[in-house]
Amino acid sequence: MSLKVVIIDYDIGNVRSILNAFERIGVLPILSRDKNEILNSDGVVLPGVGAFSHGMENLHKYLLVETIKEYVKSNKPLLGICLGMQMLLDESEEFGKTKGMGLIPGKVIKMPTRDHQNEKLPHVSWNEIKQINNNWDDTILKCISDKSDMYFVHSYIAVPNDDDHILSLTEFSDYEFCSSIKNRNIYGCQFHPEKSAKNGLKIIENFVDIIKEIKNG
Predict the structure, then answer these.
(1) What integer pLDDT is reported at residue 58 of this predicted model?
(2) CB burial class (10 A; 0-12, 13-18, 19+) of residue 22?
(3) Is 194 a catalytic residue?
(4) Scanning 80, 90, 158, 177, which has the fewest C-beta atoms within 10 Å of its C-beta?
């Protein structure tokens, strides 16, 4: 079955590793910011690294905010990665308040750290993702073991209003934060699955399986 997966191109970050990850599991994604390409795709990935305000500025610049919202209404899967996940929320406090896309109620804050731990931001490391009260079956984390290591690079974290939207938690400097989210057909990873070795590729594969399931109806 031929799948059309679009990686949204809005001039934020290096997406080569994401393209490579999909190619390694046999899917050839399209890098595009074209509205018709996005709306006619079977699955969409919103990548991103850097500042929230810059990311939102570029999404507006290329008229992508309304396109993404329209796409989400189709019930087809969307995956936000790192900054791409954060921009799914209502707002961020990074460099002053910036409005997000409001697809998942909540906000983005600077990650709290404990002084006695002598841990510095950004959080750049392999770290565990932990189950809470969720069952990871039928999500992008299907067949991922509890406390599996993923690769993180960030200083800000997503704080969803509804705990039911939190798919996993991760601990840094004695503080637990949301490391992945789910709200209907919307998924997000604070970590980088495309840089998280075997487990990361499994997450990409799970996302593709969800795309296939929805496409087949």
Answers:
(1) 98
(2) buried
(3) yes
(4) 90
